[in-house]
Amino acid sequence: xxxxxxxxxxxxxxxxxxxxxxxxxxxxxxxxxxxxxxxxxxxxxxxxxxxxxxxxxxxxxxxxxxxxxxxxxxxxxxxxxxxxxxxxxxxxxxxxxxxxxxxxxxxxxxxxxxxxxxxxxxxxxxxxxxxxxxxxxxxxxxxxxxxxxxxxxxxxxxxxxxxxxxxxxxxxxxxxxxxxxxxxxxxxxxxxxxxxxxxxxxxxxxxxxxxxxxxxxxxxxxxxxxxxxxxxxxxxxxxxxxxxxxxxxxxxxxxxxxxxxxxxxxxxxxxxxxxxxxxxxxxxxxxxxxxxxxxxxxxxxxxxxxxxxxxxxxxxxxxxxxxxxxxxxxxxxxxxxxxxxxxxxxxxxxxxxxxxxxxxxxxxxxxxxxxxxxxxxxxxxxxxxxxxxxxxxxxxxxxxxxxxxxxxxxxxx
Length: 413
Known about the structure:
Elements lengths: L8 H18 L5 E8 L2 E8 L6 H4 L21 H11 L3 E7 L3 E9 L41 E6 L3 H11 L4 E6 L2 H10 L4 E5 L7 H9 L11 E5 L6 H6 L4 E4 L4 H12 L29 H4 L6 H27 L3 H18 L5 H8 L9 H26 L5
Helix pairs in contact: 1-3, 4-10, 10-11, 10-13, 11-12
């Protein structure tokens, strides 16, 4: 079809992906169908499924925030998917409707204005990609600013992570002249901050209990503030099965795998802002490689945690105290998960511990944590998993004891 239409391909794709993802959650058998057509200057597409359907009562509240439907229990998320989808549709001045019958399936209809553009596209654009060049985001899912940033301008960063020690460490890496850092522990804090202040980059953890990084990205794109629509978002993750291309295809501007170095951190920020912030002043900690066996002796390198304390003994002690407190909580949670034989919780805790223990060079424990992390999504717990979990719990206690000694014994000059 040799015609040009004016629309926002990024948001249209996001709406379709959200609805397809929702259909997959509710459809165990049968199929899912996507249909699309142009009707009187409107794009009309529908996504139907043969899933469990939605009751009339639930249809009345399905587009409300934090609504979890009965048959979606066990699915990861915070009940925001359809609320976000509706906001995106309204942002595009469209409409969304639902037809559903319980036990027979559902069909979502989306109507979006899609006016026809100039009959002759810009002659400078040629080839098959000419009609498909996004009008707003670039290949990374962000828009580039028209005006370059002046070197004298400070850079404003906002960071979210549910792990307090990881949040403290990353903040310490970022803090330096010319950089302001705002820290958030919960999604609600972040969304409120974005409504009140303007930032240059958001760095977000991916695996968070209240709302994962993918849902968070969708949520911030629905905020009414216009600049938030182009805010570069960098994913911070310990997931070895997701590379940068994967995150960029989902709208992120970049990705850093934990544990990352200070140079990697500021390189990623430079790539999405063009602002070159010198990564100097704090040494990059040495990260010991993991070994496949369980050595009898290991030396933990806590300087990897305290390297960013600017030679301030009290700041270093505070980082270690936070590490001890958070690691104790993780050990207790793992003990509780083991007692309940909850493999999902065990692997989630292992996922959280792995980057920090890698930084410390906890070589005895790293192989077991890696084994657990690679089994995320597994629900059954076998004898090998029980054995490794008990071993991890023992090693966590040893690491905590060593961390306590670092506070009790002052550093030698």
